[in-house]
Specification:
The chain is mainly β and about 130 residues long. It contains no helices and eleven strands. The protein folds into two domains: about 70 residues, SH3 type barrels; about 60 residues, Nucleic acid-binding proteins (OB fold (Dihydrolipoamide Acetyltransferase, E2P), Beta Barrel). Helix content is about 0%, strand content about 55%. A five-stranded antiparallel sheet has the order 9-8-7-10-11, with no helix packed on it. Strands 2-3-4-5 form a four-stranded antiparallel sheet, with no helix packed on it. The radius of gyration is 18 Å and the shape is elongated. It starts with a strand and ends in a 5-residue tail after the last strand. The model has no long low-confidence stretch (mean pLDDT about 85).
Length: about 130
């Protein structure tokens, strides 16, 4: 579900936008000047939050992009495999298998509380929750 639409020229470094249907974090932006007969062009590099793929796009500055709704939730780790963890949501108590980022590989242990994000229906563990009780 798209939260809102913004013009590509209004995006900032660190913003999250939808590119090719994937939620991506903007890493760099270059805006060219308007030409005699044209519009300003924006060259943007972004990295997918879920898949980690780098995407480079060049679009007119007035092109609109969707900003995804990101739900941040907490869960407790029940078991860990190579790239996924089985977690129990701390609010609904449902058990789900959620992939985690490569940076967290080897750091997640059973019993840890984690923060996971739900972006456009996809889930990913983003960090180990601080101040777990």
């Amino acid at each position: 579900m798209v939260y809102k639409f913004i013009e590509i020229g209004d995006a900032k470094i660190g913003s999250v936008i939808l590119i090719e249907g994937a939620a991506c974090t903007v890493k760099s932006m270059d805006v060219s000047k308007t030409g005699k007969h044209g519009h300003a062009k924006v060259r943007m590099e972004a990295v997918g939050i879920i898949d980690g793929k780098k995407r480079v796009i060049v679009k007119p500055g007035s092109e609109k992009f969707g900003v995804p709704m990101i739900e941040k939730k907490r869960g407790q780790v029940l078991s860990v495999s190579e790239s996924k963890a089985s977690i129990m949501d701390m609010e609904s108590f449902e058990t789900i298998d959620v992939p985690f980022t490569e940076e967290l590989s080897g750091q997640i242990k059973e019993g840890d509380q984690v923060e996971y994000w739900v972006i456009e229906g996809e889930k990913i563990i983003k960090r180990i929750a601080q101040g777990a009780e």
